[in-house]
Model the fold of this input.
Amino acid sequence: MAPTADALAHLTEISSQIDAAVVLDREGTVVAATVDDERAGRMASAALELFRRADEQRGQELVQLDAVLEGGSVFVVRDADRLIAATTRSEPTVGLVFYDLKSCLRSLGEAPVEKPKPKRAPAKRRTTTPRSRTTTRKKKDESG
Amino acid sequence: MRAARALAVGAALGSAAGAVFLRRRSRSRDRVELYFDDGSLVTVAKGQPEGERLLSPARELLAAARG
Done:
């Protein structure tokens, strides 16, 4: 849950075009959202309905979609087991929004596999701090 | 001479404004663009048989996001 929320926070931070976003599973359960629970639930059910209806259009599997509407645009992108839906204002840079949404989904897909990730960050701090201390001590030892 | 020039300028400005208007109008037409895994793209616009079926949940999604 936390990595998903982090990924969404990062998404809205890097993409100023995205107003609201929700990550949901294939059953429509909200995994994380940038809006409150009530709105997230409505967004998720509408996104799932839209994606299911659109997926019936052709024999091929639907990967992503965007809807251009009067007051803004809607985007839905899927990966293996998740969907991300986002809304933007009118006339967004479509390619850029898709890129950001896919990156967000990819980062969510990688998160459970790379479990040692949180361990790596403190490890870097540990290695840098003692080295700097050691060099200082050595100098003191040599001078003294 | 002046009248002819004014007429030409007016016609040029009018056609430019018309082009901008038509472009914006065609851009703002509600549509859904579907991207499939074989790389194909299908556009379903308002007024087409499947158009409203897809645009309706898309509008719900946008409305839900805006509260």
